[in-house]
Amino acid sequence: METTALSPLAARVAELFPSLALASRATLERIAREGIHRKVHAGTVMYSAHSPCEGFPLVLAGGIRVLQRYPDGRENQLYRVKVGESCLLSGSCLLGQTSCEAIGIAETGTEVLTLPPQTFHRLIAEDETFRGHVFLLYGERLSALMQMVDASIGQKRE
Predict the structure, then answer these.
(1) Domain 8-146 is in which class?
(2) How do the domains of the chain map onto residue ranges?
(3) For the segment 118-139, what is each residue's pLDDT rounded down to a tens digit?
(4) For the segment 9-64, what is each residue's pLDDT rounded down to a tens digit?
(5) 109 Cβ neighbours under 8 A, 6+ residues apart
(6) What is the value of pTM for the model shown?
């Protein structure tokens, strides 16, 4: 086992993303090296509906509000991506090679490390820990969706 310390950015990824903490040093350093590190102000549009997915964001600080906007001006918030989380729709778009169907807006000053599509695909294919992180994300969001459906059905029965 290597005892060399991780770079500061790789160490933050390991600290903030428990499902990636057990990744190899090489994987963590690759994420830090190949990811695009950005700090943005509140209100910054991180990604837009009907645009190609530019990568898989890992939120290091702040948060992203993910929503759909309709032609009549209504908005439907789908979920929030908080510190230590990644965007499910971005992962889905990358895996399915489709455009994003939602808008991501920084809720506060936000810091993200976005993995470019080629890095995301290589890590999914080659790294069990990273692949586990992505599938854990799917499991958590599906569970939250099921709870919302159950709550909605319960309200209709009352």
Answers:
(1) mainly beta
(2) 8-146
(3) 999 999 999 999 999 888 887 7
(4) 999 999 999 999 999 999 999 999 999 999 999 999 998 888 888 899 999 999 99
(5) 39, 40, 41, 42, 61, 62
(6) 0.84
Q: What is the pLDDT of residue 10?
A: 97
| Average pLDDT score over residue span 101-110 | 93
Please state, in angstroms and as integers, the Cα–Cα distance from residue 103 to each residue in 43, 80, 133, following that order. Answer: 11, 11, 23
